[in-house]
Amino acid sequence: MAIQAQRIRDLNDGDPQAGGSYVLYLMQQANRAHFNPALEFAIEEANRLGLPVVACFGLLDGANGFPEANARHYAFLLQGLADAKAGLEARGIHFVMRKASPADIAIALSDEAALLVLDRGYLAIQKRWYGEIVKAAKTRIVQVEGDVVVPVETASPKHEYAARTLRPKILKLLDEYVEALKPRTVKHKAGRGLPKSEIDVSDPDSVLAGMTLDREVAPVKRFTGGESEARRRLKAYLAGPFRSYGNDRNRPEAGAASHMSPYLHFGQISPVEIALAVRESKAGAAEDRASYLEELIVRRELSMNHVYFTERYDSYEHAVPDWARKSLADHAEDERPHRYTEKQLAEGETHDEYWNAAQAEMRVTGYMHNHLRMYWGKKILEWSPSAEEGFKRTLRLNNRYFLDGRDANSFTNVAWVYGLHDRPWARRKIFGTVRYQSENSLRKFDAKAYLKTVGELCKAESEAKPPRKSG
């Protein structure tokens, strides 16, 4: 029930600010009102100091918007924030939302705060915000990890070579970290005199309509944001499709995926909460639970390890290992039977109907099954004029259309296509000794059934949206 000490870090040497009016929590990565270690820590400290809790969120917009985020991403984010706001206020916590960077709103509101609590993310932009806050805020700052099961530095002090090297380090710590988090009672409810919110996110559609952003990639109906929806989906999943996860996880047409990745990306559900629910599930067999937890914890946290210990994780030169870049360079002049422009790839205009279907699922609904993501990425490498250009294209398409794009998993999975966390394989054209994936991999599932499923999903999206106005 306690928050593990390894999740908590003091970011400066300050004491709580005398005369502070509240404890401030910057809700930046963990966008939820429950099972949130940073929020529970803020409540504990507020109770100890006899103060209310103020949670805040800085909404990036216009020229200062989150890099590569568009209407699809912001719609899901705002739906989640509306749910979080309702949950916070039901607990007696004041919520403030303004158009500002996370750093700017935290710094501005910290002037009246006895204590500033941050949650944690591992991307470069998040690290930059934390640095700005530490430099400018004058009160005590504490950061509490709530986005991974085992904190990155606790699991490993270095960049891990592969899942097989990180796995034993994480598994020996799981029992310590997969624990329920008891919700604290807010003893001092929010009252008058607290900072005012400039945005009422209770109506997320209205907030979205008032933003200046890329609207070419539309919001999707397949997924609705929010911790309530995440829990509803998880409960339904564990009661049904999870029963066949071990056997069907690599079959895109089988419906065995949980679709938790967008909710994890936006911090709308805790990975520990999911792990507990999976462990306690009576539906799946032991192998189903083990397979799911491998993906949720080991594979996901290998990605966190990669972006944390790689300064330029979005760069081909820095993210792809030396041996792979050398091998790909040795084959840079190999003939490429098929070459496509990035626009052709985005529109799914290739000779491969199965690749086109996977691209359509991503472009229209914001999701693609993991098994097809691997095939999808390998083909972009094969069909691009160079490995470097293929890397850039894969990352741009990934970040533009996937709901969970711009995530540690995204950056790591794209680099995996080019050799990260892998070993040399048999040499072949274009790929050199980087792992190749052929059309034969499609034989492992019912590809025709997948085509039908994608057609139905895309039709459902098109029928749910009003036609786009011309001009």
UniProtKB/TrEMBL annotation:
SUPFAM superfamilies in UniProt: Cryptochrome/photolyase FAD-binding domain, Cryptochrome/photolyase, N-terminal domain
Annotated keywords: Lyase
Cofactors that this protein relies on: (6R)-5,10-methylene-5,6,7,8-tetrahydrofolate
Enzyme class: lyase
Molecular function, one GO term: deoxyribodipyrimidine photo-lyase activity
Keyword Methyltransferase: no
PROSITE patterns the record matches: PHR_CRY_ALPHA_BETA (PS51645)
Domain spans labelled Photolyase/cryptochrome alpha/beta: 21-152
EC number: 4.1.99.3
Full protein name: Deoxyribodipyrimidine photo-lyase
Source organism: Methylobacterium marchantiae
